[in-house]
Write a structure and sequence with these properties.
The complex is a heterodimer of chains A (450) and B (391).
Chain A lengths: L2 E4 L13 E5 L6 E4 L9 E3 L6 E2 L4 E5 L6 E3 L4 E8 L5 E8 L17 H11 L5 E4 L3 E2 L8 E5 L10 H6 L3 H12 L6 E6 L6 H4 L5 E6 L7 H8 L8 E4 L1 H13 L5 E7 L7 E6 L5 H4 L8 E5 L6 E3 L11 E6 L5 E2 L55 H9 L3 H6 L11 H6 L6 H16 L1
Helix pairs in contact in A: 3-6
Chain B lengths: L1 H14 L9 H11 E2 L16 H31 L5 H34 L6 H11 L7 H15 L13 H12 L29 H6 L9 H6 L11 H14 L4 H21 L3 H4 L4 H4 L3 H8 L10 H21 L7 H39 L1
Helix pairs in contact in B: 3-4, 3-5, 3-10, 4-5, 4-6, 5-7, 6-7, 7-16, 10-14, 11-15, 15-16
């Protein structure tokens, strides 16, 4: 029996630049980057050096603590650079594409394989990192059995891609095979959560082997963290896994064709994109072919992901491992004369302190300006309005800042991820870096509990 | 605008580390960000940020205070001319009162902001906007005749011992503006009680007309002379003696409306303070042991600082309750205690200030119990899950 849950708390940001439902043609990018920084808590160790030739599915680096978890090249070609940042932190491994050669992982029917065999297949192909766990929001630990698996069938983030459109343009058989592989990983249910506000693709509603649930409401109603909290909350010591819908398709392809080809449909969005629409891309692909000549002039911010949780990339940067969206918005590096005192007809705000709130909703061209300076926590009752969970956000944040392990545990640290607090960060009048605080809390708990 | 921007950019290096005036960096940054919203951009986490900041938030509170301030200025003049028996127009009353209030505001801001600037520089922080509101609240809850040196001392006390020692805006336990008032109330009680301090000129005994009494409605009530009270409408409009900004319930309600519509002030707290007042008022009406107890409960809302406290003091997000459920309890108890202190305590005619300060102290305890109930729900859930897995 499917459950349907209506959420009231949350907020949809009115930002301009949603993608038109068209899949554009673009030339294949020449370069692909795999970014260790996409995986929180990972200590990467290189398997290759610049100049090495790799196939699609060859390991580029692995997890130093759990060496079975490897991160593989999405295409065949030559490793050209290993970009490093401060203190030699590994930022990205760049592969120049040449030909279409795949490592053969031997196709098989997942329904006839054991949990261990499926885990092995995912591990060596480089698809294992697509499986993430709660608590801590990190790559799942192989060998563990989660009490359930969650797949979100919709995304409510600003300008997020429409999964129904994506699914209708993706091979349905891969999705079914992927689900049958994923369902072997748990003794519990595989939950597929769909949008209760719109009609979902029949491919999703008729998918065998999943428990359907419907959530409706403003963002973050599509976040897996919110689904888990309401359907199968994580208690201390329990583990729930999550997989992105498009990664389930890649998993299905792995078993049906025996190759690692993390192809996905991404939405190119944002006010600065001339023709915002969808594109077919390989994970890790350089975004330059789709943004070149397709953006407005000016100082721009390129984001892999959405404006709330995405990662800043260069104009020829690479699509993140978990991202199905690229957003381009204007940078906000300007001074504004008495900006805080103006009536604010053109200012977008969650609060009702600007004149714009008197007028009907419209989409704004939002930029990256901070709109103020960082302060201590002052206002109360704001975060609660956008966190649809039985959690006290400010108290949890203060517990994290104080590194009070017991309080963090009591206040629900196991149930949250950075993205669940992204809206708090957006609307915070004190301009506090909330997602970074949540991440540091998760890292601390992970260290204490291991 | 552009030339100003250029001038600032030229001056900036002098105020930064290594510059000639590096000791004034916080002050410079404070003024710069006051004139220009900085060009700082996001670099991690959310790439877009809400247009609202603390400056905007505090500005809204100041706008909400304006009706009470303007009416206060008029009323100061009105009461003065009443006491001297001079006929005066509205504008003349307002002008007179405004010039009398101005020194209070100036002293409060200079002392308070001066301390804020020094504290921010010592900590290496940006200057916090919190005092912009506190600095206006303080004069509004003072009697008009309070000596300026006393006001300066009280402001310094409130800012240093009430706020900075705890770590500045956002960290304080008590509402700083109320602390300033409490400081004078207990240190110089002659300037905060009695019938003379509420009307300008009365303390120095200028040509007072016969029969004029500067008694506030609350002191009349405390003396049991409820029959001498001004009419309900006069008290609602606010043409009565009292602290500068507290007399007009009508003007305060306009401010309340601004706070509630913009979402800056918690409507839950405002409503529950009044609910607490109604509850306690009705209870006292039911007992009716003396004249004061017989006074209809709604009279409490238009006398003294009840409305002002409910709208502008109890809603302080820092010193008040921080959980939504807690706000109901916190507000309700403020209302109950205010009326209780007024009617049942023979020592102090006014109870709102002490009620709010007392509940400031208890707000963390209320929050503790509210949050504990969420924690208990979580623990219970974990226990059920554990039992199921054992079976």
């Amino acid at each position: 029996m499917s459950r349907s849950i209506k959420l009231k708390k949350g907020f949809d940001i009115s930002i301009a630049g949603s993608a038109e439902k068209l899949i554009g043609a673009c030339s294949y990018p020449a370069r692909y980057g795999v970014k260790p920084v996409d995986f929180p808590g990972l200590i990467p160790k290189l398997n290759v050096k610049p100049g090495d030739n790799v196939l699609a599915g060859s390991p580029l680096f692995h997890n130093k603590v759990i060496p079975e978890i490897v991160f593989t090249s999405p295409v065949s070609g030559t490793v050209i650079t290993v970009e490093r940042g401060e203190r030699r932190k590994m930022l990205e491994i760049v592969v120049e594409r040449k030909g279409d050669e795949y490592i053969n992982f031997v196709k098989s029917d997942p329904s006839k394989l054991s949990c261990g065999e499926i885990t092995d297949m995912l591990l060596k192909s480089g698809l294992w990192p697509a499986v993430r766990q709660r608590p801590y929001n990190v790559v799942a630990k192989p060998g563990q059995k989660p009490k359930s698996v969650f797949i979100s069938g919709f995304d409510t983030a600003p300008l997020a891609p429409d999964y129904n459109f994506i699914i209708d343009n993706s091979p349905a058989s891969f999705l079914r095979t992927g689900i049958s592989a994923v369902s072997k990983l748990t003794d519990g249910k595989v939950n597929l959560v769909l949008n209760g506000n719109t009609k979902s693709s029949t491919v999703l509603t008729d998918l065998p082997g999943v428990e359907l649930s419907y959530f409706s409401g403003p963002h973050p109603a599509g976040n897996p963290g919110v689904h888990i909290h309401h359907l199968d909350p994580v208690n201390k010591g329990e583990v729930v896994w999550i997989v992105n819908l498009q990664d389930v398709i890649s998993i299905g392809r792995l078993f049906e064709e025996g190759i690692y080809k993390p192809e996905r449909i991404i939405a190119l969005t944002g006010s600065e994109v001339l023709k915002p629409q969808y594109y077919r891309m390989i994970s890790g692909a350089s975004v330059s072919p789709v943004v070149n000549g397709n953006v407005r002039m000016g100082n721009l911010r390129y984001i892999s992901g959405n404006v709330l949780t995405g990662t800043k990339i260069a104009s020829d940067g690479y699509l993140g491992y978990y991202d199905s969206q690229v957003t381009v918005i204007p940078e906000g590096d300007y001074f504004e004369f008495f900006g805080w005192a103006a009536p604010g007809l053109d200012k977008f705000s969650f609060s009702r302190t600007f004149a714009s709130s008197l007028f009907p909703k419209r989409n704004y061209r939002l930029d990256t300006n901070f709109h103020g300076g960082e302060r201590a926590f002052v206002m109360t009752g704001q975060y609660e309005k956008v966190v649809p969970m039985d959690i006290y956000p400010m108290q949890l944040l203060k517990a994290i800042l104080a590194a009070d392990i017991d309080a963090m545990e009591n206040l629900g640290i196991y149930e949250v991820a950075e993205e669940d607090f992204a809206l708090c960060e957006f609307l915070c009048p004190s301009k506090i870096e909330i997602q970074a605080i949540v991440r540091s809390g998760l890292d601390l708990m992970m260290k204490e509990m291991s | 605008m552009n030339s100003l921007r250029k001038k600032l950019d030229k001056l900036k290096p002098h105020f930064h580390k290594g510059g000639r005036f590096e000791k004034l960096q916080s002050v410079f940054d404070g003024f710069e960000s006051f004139m220009f919203v900085p060009d700082k951009v996001t670099f991690k986490g959310s790439h877009i940020r809400d247009s609202v900041d603390l400056k905007r938030t505090m500005t809204v509170v100041i706008i909400a205070l304006l009706p009470a301030l303007l009416f206060g200025a008029y009323n100061v003049g009105l009461q003065h001319f009443k006491s001297t028996g001079v006929e005066a127009t509205v504008m003349r009353s307002f002008g007179f009162g405004f010039l009398r209030i101005l020194p209070l505001i100036v002293v409060s801001y200079i002392v308070g902001l001066g301390i804020e600037f020094i504290a921010a520089q010592i900590r290496g922080h940006e200057i916090n906007e919190g005092f912009l509101v506190t600095g206006l609240l303080i004069p509004l809850i003072m009697p008009i005749d309070v000596p300026l040196w006393m006001l300066a001392l009280a402001t310094a006390f409130a800012v240093i011992l009430g706020k900075e020692v705890f770590g500045g805006t956002g960290m304080n336990i008590f509402n700083p503006a109320l602390l300033a008032r409490a400081f004078i109330f207990f240190s110089y009680p002659a300037w905060m009680t009695g019938d003379n301090v509420w009307t300008e000129g009365l303390t120095s005994g200028q040509n007072i007309v016969d029969g004029f009494s500067g008694a506030t409605p609350l002191s009349l009530c405390a003396a049991g002379e409820t029959s001498k009270l001004p009419s309900f409408m006069d008290m609602f409009i606010g043409t009565i003696p009292g602290s500068v900004g507290e007399t007009s319930t009508a003007a305060i309600l306009i401010g309340a409306l601004i706070l509630i519509i913009t979402g800056i002030g918690s409507w839950k707290i405002i409503l529950s303070v009044f609910a607490g007042g109604v509850g306690m008022g009705l209870l006292l009406n039911a007992i009716s042991a003396n004249n004061y107890m017989e006074l209809p409960f709604y009279y409490h809302f238009v006398m003294g600082g009840f409305a002002f406290g409910a709208v502008f003091m109890a809603t302080d997000p820092v010193s008040g309750s921080q959980t939504e459920t807690g706000k109901w309890i916190y507000g309700f108890l403020i209302g109950v205690l205010s009326v209780m202190l007024r009617v049942l305590n023979p020592a102090y005619p006014e109870g709102v200030m002490l009620a709010i300060l007392l509940m400031n102290l208890f707000a963390p305890l209320i929050d503790h119990f509210v949050i504990q109930s969420s924690i208990n729900r979580r623990l219970k859930r974990a226990k059920i899950a554990l039992n199921n897995s054992v079976k």
